[in-house]
Structure formats: C-alpha cells, structure tokens
User: Which sequence fits this backbone?
C-alpha cells in the first residue's frame, strides 16, 4: 500500500515538532548547522509544491 506523500509530510512535521521540544533533545544542547527548523521549512516547501501541482492538475482536468 502506498502512503500519500502529503500525509507523510504532515506526520514528519509533527514528529519533528515533538523531537524539538522533547526534554532529552533539549538536554543535548545540540546546535548543528542544519536545524530541525530547517527541516520543517524544507518540508513546508515540498508541501507547497505538491499542493500547487495538485491544483494545476485539477485545473487542467477541468478543461478536458
């Protein structure tokens, strides 16, 4: 069974937010060059692209 990519992105965004505020993660005091916030931003961009693409496909089908 194939999972919808938008659903995977939503779950991943949720998991990243849970990791970011988890006490064990906070205790690490880990500050890499690329942060959880960067990953969340990248996922948001992918989500926006997918949604725009789906709207374009739906619009194109409307003209058939």
Assistant:
């Amino acid at each position: 069974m194939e999972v919808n990519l938008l659903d995977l992105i939503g779950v991943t965004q949720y998991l990243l937010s849970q990791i970011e505020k988890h006490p064990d993660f906070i205790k690490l005091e880990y500050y890499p060059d690329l942060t959880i916030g960067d990953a969340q931003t990248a996922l948001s961009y992918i989500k926006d692209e997918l949604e725009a693409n789906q709207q374009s496909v739906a619009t194109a089908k409307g003209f058939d």
The radius of gyration is 16 Å. The chain has one domain: 5-55. Residues 36-62 form the longest helix (27 residues). Residues 5-55 form one domain.
